[in-house]
Hints:
0% strand, single chain, mainly alpha, 188 residues
Amino acid sequence: MSDGPHRSLPMRAGWKRVAERAGNVAYPMDEITAAIGPAVAQDCRQELSPDFLQSICAIYTEQDGSLFKDDVRPQIEALRDAAGYGIGRALLNNVARISPAEASKVEALVAAFAATLKDRAARGARQVEEHLLRKSGVPRALNTRARIDLASANAPYEALARELLKVKTRAPNRSALKKQDLDDGVPL
């Protein structure tokens, strides 16, 4: 007996946990949702440099306390090389779409980063689906992808964006990913 196709996936550990929970109907949606946050956070920690996040956050927090707001777009464009590719570049593209009236507010940065995280979660769902198509077949892959998409709709991307940007020190409420006790079984 095998542990399922999620064991052999060449993905990060966070996305393997998401695939395991989404592929098993015994896991409720809230546990899949709880697994998506750490998977996306792991991707951000791997792909984004702390200096880049600190620089972009400093630009916005500096403007937040100012009475006369400056145009932050030139400063944001100067970070293109530090952003790299992937999540950093997607974040800068989302920040560029912010209206000029909202461009200097920290809340606009948090909203842009939350949209970036949601896009990354969708990319992770497609990656899980692709691997499951190779390993286990179409019905299981489509069912797993549908469960990930449903869980992703309820994921706390804004809270995760605040945590990664260190805008607010309040951490989002997440349930434990692994069950530790005998009483932590399937809810009845």
